[in-house]
Specification:
alpha+beta, 5-stranded mixed β-barrel, two-stranded antiparallel ribbon
Length: 359
Amino acid sequence: PSMSIRWQFEDVGDPAAMLGGGELGGRENAPKSLKDLGIIGTEGELYFNPSKRASLDLPSDYLQAIPGSLPIFPHDGIICPGSAEWLTATDMRLRQMFQENKRFGVLHHSPTNQRVALTGTIVKIKERQFSPDGRIFVSVEGLERFYVREFVDENPYLLAHATIFRDFADFRSTIDRLEYKVANRVRINMHMIQWLFPSRSFSMNAKVADNFPPPLDYARNNTRTFAYIPDETVLQRRSEFVFGVINMLQITPAAKLALMQEPILENRMARVHHLLKMASQYLEKELLKKKLRTRKQIEDMKQLTQLVMDDAIRSRYLDELDNGSAAMSNTRPEGESRNPPALNPAVPSHRWVQRVVRM
């Protein structure tokens, strides 16, 4: 895991004086430990504390301060980017917020320690429904993550100064294989779940299916290998893919929040792969205990899943290369050689590869 980017917390003075002792006000004689302050939860998730102002040491291209103030909806669940959910407002202030804003921020509110999370998701309203008893139901879709710098008002509803943060790939030379391992593990687990519950139908999350990883390495006649080095478009696809996988996981809100707040994509992928591997071990135990499959059948399925993916990648690459070779001279930039450049891991050659293999 990368250690180069960390959440940082700076003292900002007396929290009670900042908010006039309101519902977000702090405590006197607060301890110095982040865990004692309630900033760090049991799963490593982060919660807001007005005595400490958070910041993220990311390159400026990956951070964007939100102009003005962001309306905040406290929620007991977690909404990740790309996910959809219905929210309900019974309180007058929240109903007003739903009617006055098309976009707002959703922050997890922990019923255990009565705190709101440091990071959340900006959502947009797709549909509103009004109940005769005054409640408002809104269908929302997650857009981008943000973190709270400070809360600025509680009336008519919660408002915060916030900053959007986007995924950063710190070890781009290893993220290809890591994503491939996550994709394989998803397929394996789907097979085992279907074996355990044959009478029920299971399908892959649409975000996962739509953003499934493309070929990682390309080879022909064992003479040359083309490296796929991600650009920002691929980074976005990978981010959507891993958030789709997170939405498939049956984990606690605290664990999901810890994954969502991670700014480095490969760190989140590594943690997701670990969770998927633990799930595989559990599913395999259940299959053996219930005598639904033998160990050899399970191992054969794992091998077949891997081989099917490899064969599909190899076949797709060769077919695309053969079908597109005649037209390559018309699509390459002026002055660029028709042959691919020699492989150099330090040189982004992905743009040339994308013209050869249409993802």
